[in-house]
Design brief:
The complex is a heterodimer. Chain A is built from 11 helices and no strands. By secondary structure, chain A is mainly α. In chain A, α2 crosses α11. The radius of gyration of chain A is 22 Å and the shape is globular. Chain A starts with a helix and ends in a 7-residue tail after the last helix. In chain B, 41% of the residues lie in helices and 15% in strands. In chain B, α2 links the parallel β1 and β2. Chains A and B meet through α3, α5, α6 and α10 of A and α1, β1, β2, α3 and α7 of B.
């Protein structure tokens, strides 16, 4: 009895989480643009998606910046976390407080601040400025994800490795990194999600040449979001779902979760 | 594992360089910034083919975001499409370049009624792009009285089924129009009367809303509400659903006329090409195609003429073609200056009471 109640509760929670997405997927096949009525099954929004120059351009920049920002901020964040971990108490808490600023700041403050910085530094707003902005707000989250794993490390292991003749970089690569890999991976995933999702910071640092999906979708607010966006969201959701299933299947088979 | 990491890093470096280099080119690139879904995109390709000028077309969602981006600087747009009140703000802040109309001969096709309007009295900076009205969207099945006056929003019969707009200018403007005053009034007595009228209305309305009004009426959650003519046109042009039960009335007292117009911001580096683009959009055939695709009313007389020949039924719709007598009584919002805070104050009092 209790077990059924637990199952029902869990089912309700999942329903609450996924109902909007399921509705979105269903409406991506709706031939009526209206959000209230079903007009018949169609694939025309997917066809329109392939032809839409603006959406393709936005998707290209979104993914490109997300991938680059994730890689760079993960590398920075991991190295920074290792450095912070090895600091004495006062510099460490100071660094952590500074690190928390972009996390706690509202996006609009970060966005306008970065934009002002770029303009003052005479950097033309464009791809570079947007990429730098994304790295700036992703790195703190990577640091926050990696630090707990570092704390769980047995700190004598790296010392032992170096006693046995390993150079510090070797100890880093072969001893420390493999043990904090789960932290690095979750940091990278958070960074990727944040980057794809971001609107405010991207909007202010994008300049005239680049755009991303969030900016594009927000600009559709006045006349209603195009149904081809539903199609795009469905494809993105299914891609992520498939990736997650593959990753989980791999770790189920007992293999270690590799980068 | 090591190899994968090296490959990934190398790939990122190559990608970043490639994208950074891609920006360099000798062709003139025009930066056009418009509302989302507000143009026939094939016309952009056509302009590029005909003139050899590359168009970098980006979109925004509100006048406020447009203004924020332009005021911040660091960007150089060549053609943007603000609304009337945004244009008057931009003129005041000296953010626009005066247009050289000898480069825009197609300006002669613009309807005389839409030249030299209140937001650009000498018509030096802007060229109208689309226009429309604010009116009452209603469900024909739920409303049996004629919808031709603002008074219907105060009709007891529809208590609880009336939607008013969250916007301070729209709601205050409607109240002022009901009383026979100007929508740009700066007379304290008139504003107080308007406030009392709005307070009296509060019992009858369902609430103050924004973009949801269109959907709420389509779903039958309300009988009538204040919307833009564009909202009605969006429902009208939706081929996959039958919205014939939805109507739109433009009150005979007159209403607010809205205009979206093409302007050239000060940071533009390609003024001549920007004027070419504006002239291109005013070409009768182009304007007709654009107006056909977007679905709003063009200010271009030749385009309207062709629209009349091809789809005469659309001119029966008050949302598309309001009666000239109503257009004469209608006003464009002008900048209220210091009265802006007074309007906001009154509006806040209405919302709280």
């Amino acid at each position: 009895m209790k077990k059924t109640a637990k199952r029902i509760y869990m089912g309700l929670v999942f329903l609450f989480l996924y109902a909007p997405i399921i509705l979105l997927i269903v409406y991506s096949f709706n031939s009526s643009k209206s959000r209230g009525q079903w007009g018949g099954f169609t694939l025309k929004w997917y066809a329109e998606l392939l032809q839409d120059r603006q959406i393709k351009e936005a998707l290209y920049f979104t993914i490109l910046i997300a991938v680059l920002a994730t890689i760079i901020s993960t590398i920075f964040g991991t190295l920074a976390a290792i450095g912070i971990h090895n600091m004495k108490r006062f510099p460490r808490s100071l660094s952590l407080n500074i690190n928390n600023l972009p996390v706690l700041n509202p996006d609009i403050v970060t966005g306008v601040a970065l934009m002002t910085l770029f303009i003052t530094a005479n950097l033309q707003l464009g791809f570079a400025s947007m990429l730098i902005a994304h790295i700036v707000f992703c790195t703190p989250y990577v640091i926050l994800a990696v630090l707990p794993k570092l704390r769980q490390l047995n700190r004598h292991l790296a010392e032992a490795a170096m006693d046995l003749g390993a150079k510090p970089s070797y100890a880093l690569r072969k001893v420390i990194i493999p043990q904090i890999t789960p932290g690095i991976v979750s940091g990278a995933l958070i960074a990727f999600t944040l980057s794809i999702d971001d609107f405010v910071i991207s909007f202010f640092t994008a300049g005239t040449q680049v755009t991303n999906l969030s900016i594009l979708i927000y600009s559709m607010a006045k006349r209603g979001v195009k149904p081809s966006i539903n199609a795009l969201s469905t494809i993105m959701f299914l891609t992520v779902l498939v990736l997650l299933l593959l990753i989980n299947k791999k770790s189920d088979k007992g293999e270690e979760l590799l980068l | 594992m090591k190899k994968i990491v090296i490959v990934v890093i190398l790939a990122s470096v190559i990608l970043t360089t490639a994208v950074a280099m891609a920006g360099c080119s000798d062709r003139v690139v025009l930066n056009v910034f418009n509302w989302g879904e507000y143009i026939d995109e094939s016309l952009i390709d056509r302009f590029e083919d005909e003139t050899g000028i590359k168009v970098n077309y980006k979109t925004y969602d509100t006048n406020e975001t447009l203004l924020a981006k332009l005021e911040a600087g660091g960007v150089s747009y060549d053609v943007v499409f603000p609304s009337d009140y945004a244009i008057s703000e931009m003129i005041k802040s000296d953010m626009l370049l005066p247009i050289d109309f000898s480069n825009v001969p197609n300006f002669r096709y613009i309807d005389e009624r839409f030249k030299n309007r209140e937001y650009d009295p000498e018509n030096m900076y802007s060229v109208p792009y689309f226009w429309g009205t604010i009116g009452i969207l209603y469900n024909r099945n739920m409303v049996d009285d004629p919808v031709d006056s603002w008074n219907i929003l105060w009709n007891e019969k529809y208590k609880g089924k009336i939607l008013m707009k969250k916007d301070v200018r729209d709601s205050m403007g409607i109240a002022l129009k009901v009383l026979g005053y100007s929508m740009n009034s700066t007379n304290d007595a008139e504003l107080q009367e308007a406030k009392e009228l709005l307070v009296r209305q509060k019992d009858l309305i369902n609430g103050y809303y924004g973009d949801e009004i269109k959907d709420m009426i389509a779903n039958g959650d309300a009988a009538m509400g204040v919307t833009y003519s564009g909202d009605f046109m969006d429902l009208y042009w939706d081929e996959s659903t039958d919205f014939s039960y939805i109507g739109y009335g433009v009150p005979k007292e007159g209403t607010n006329l809205w205009f979206d117009a093409m302007v050239i911001p000060k940071g533009s580096k390609h003024k001549a090409e920007a004027e070419m683009f504006i002239n291109f959009m005013l070409d009768p055939e182009i304007a007709f195609q654009n107006s056909n695709e977007v679905g709003y009313t063009s200010p271009n007389t030749e385009a309207l003429q062709r629209m009349r020949e091809e789809s005469p039924e659309v001119f029966e719709l008050p949302a598309y073609w309001p009666d000239d007598s109503i257009v004469q009584l209608s006003e464009v919002y002008i900048d209220l200056g210091e009265y802006k805070t007074i309007y906001n104050q009154i509006w806040m009092e209405v919302r709280i009471e």
